[in-house]
Design a protein that fits this description.
Length: 444
């Protein structure tokens, strides 16, 4: 049976139904495609949000630290909402509708405050729209990212993440193009396009994948692992968090610290790049937002090669190399405060972040004691990354207030150097033992 390719039962096959994958099967590319589209849909909105909302806030605040703090609030909501919502989605995962109702309803509700952001004529209204969108969108963000674990076997999840991140990189391209082509002409229209695209693409993902959830869902076969820790299947996310951090020999805590640091600096750089372009480079708002476009293209071109190369280096080492490249890009941006220099800097930083984006969640999943708690371990990733994204823009913005916008890249490089030290210690303490096991399974 293990050597026999899966064959759908007679009478159960239709043109619109994807075949159910079996454990150890080849990666279900159809499922990965539609999960990628779902993640793309939500990330397109977030990328445009990060590019344009800081400029909206600058109408009311002159302090970069305050702007960064408010921008960080969008990610802080995930610390409180995603664990509970993710735990609920785990209970729904094996039912007929799966996790999809949480994603679809959340997206429809979050679109309303997002569209209203450019219509806000005073600070209280703007803050209500910004915080409202952030709270709702963060609630289902982690659920969308966990969809891939429902349809792709553990041995293929690293490859699947590479394809998903390749799709996500296009969201930066879409966001940059909307900023370049629409934002300077009609800001209200520009804010209406991303949520419309999100609803359309999520609808397509549900129609071709979510509607056939039970047909494509991985069989509930965990073997001995399911019998080894049955109580963990329904444990609260906080109980799993305590178990993961209680063991002094576990590298989980250190990996979470590394995720916190890198996610924070990337979020800070991305959130404050548009004001940097207008303040230092003398660009218009739309032109400054478009600085991320070349980096997005570089991400798209290199994400799959980096994902496959990570299988040789190991996820932890690959992330360490990525941090080093990220620092090099920041130092280049500081020494060359011009448009070409900034674009080159963003390309290098994007390539460094690519290695992190592809490997971070997979490395954390590989540290899970059982496949039954992958959803909860996604929550651990959320806590670490959301905390970093919440504090990163405020920290970097405060250093800009203390120095000048001209020193933004140098300030970020100092914090990134701390991140490099964290990953260096992590590699020495846990030299990809977990990731090597996952790689061996993927190569088998």
């Amino acid at each position: 049976m293990p050597d026999t390719p899966p064959i759908s039962p007679p009478g159960a096959v239709s043109m619109s139904t994807l075949p159910r994958p079996a454990p150890g099967d080849r990666m279900n590319r159809g499922a990965v495609l539609w999960v990628t589209l779902a993640v793309f849909a939500q990330e397109a909105v977030w990328n445009f949000y990060d590019a344009q909302v800081p400029e909206q806030l600058r109408h009311y605040f002159s302090s970069a630290g305050v702007v960064g703090l408010i921008m960080g609030l969008d990610h802080s909501w995930g610390i409180f909402t995603q664990p509970s919502v993710g735990f609920l989605s785990d209970k729904l995962a094996r039912r007929r509708t799966g996790r999809w109702p949480i994603v679809l309803i959340g997206a429809a509700v979050a679109a309303v405050p997002f569209v209203l952001i450019p219509w806000a004529t005073n600070l209280p209204t703007l803050l209500v729209c910004v915080v409202g969108f952030a709270a709702i969108a963060n609630a289902f963000k982690g659920v969308t990212e966990t969809l891939v674990s429902d349809y792709v076997a553990p041995s293929n999840r690293s490859k699947a993440q590479g394809f998903i991140k390749a799709g996500v990189s296009l969201t930066i391209v879409v966001s940059s193009l909307i900023s370049l082509l629409v934002a300077d002409r009609s800001l209200r229209l520009a804010f209406a396009i991303p949520p419309l695209l999100m609803l359309i693409m999520l609808g397509l993902s549900w129609a071709f994948l979510g509607r056939h959830h039970t047909d494509v869902l991985l069989p509930d076969e965990e073997g001995e692992g399911a019998k080894a820790a049955p109580e963990q299947e329904f444990a609260s996310p906080w109980a799993v968090l305590k178990g993961a951090l209680r063991s002094p020999s576990s590298p989980t805590l250190l990996l979470m610290v590394g995720i916190f640091c890198f996610a924070g600096m990337w979020s800070a750089l991305r959130s404050l790049m548009t004001p940097y372009g207008t303040q230092v480079l003398g660009l218009t708002r739309g032109e400054a937002a478009g600085l991320a476009l070349p980096g997005a293209v570089a991400f798209l071109v290199c994400v799959l090669p980096i994902a496959y190369a990570s299988n040789r280096f190991g996820q932890l080492r690959a992330m360490r190399y990525g941090v080093g490249l990220f620092i090099a890009g920041l130092l280049l941006g500081f020494t060359m405060p011009t448009v070409p220099g900034t674009i080159t800097s963003m390309v290098l930083c994007s390539l460094g972040y690519t290695s992190f984006a592809v490997n971070a969640l997979v490395a954390l999943w590989n540290l899970a004691p059982t496949q039954k708690v992958l959803g909860t371990y996604t929550t651990l990733y959320t806590i670490a990354s959301a905390s970093g994204m919440a504090l990163g823009p405020a920290i970097l913005g405060t250093t800009i207030d203390l120095t000048r916008w001209r020193y933004m890249h140098l300030n970020a490089a100092v914090f990134a150097a701390v991140t490099f030290l964290v990953f260096t210690r992590l590699v020495r303490r846990a030299p990809d033992r977990a990731t090597d096991r996952a790689t061996d399974r993927a190569a088998a």
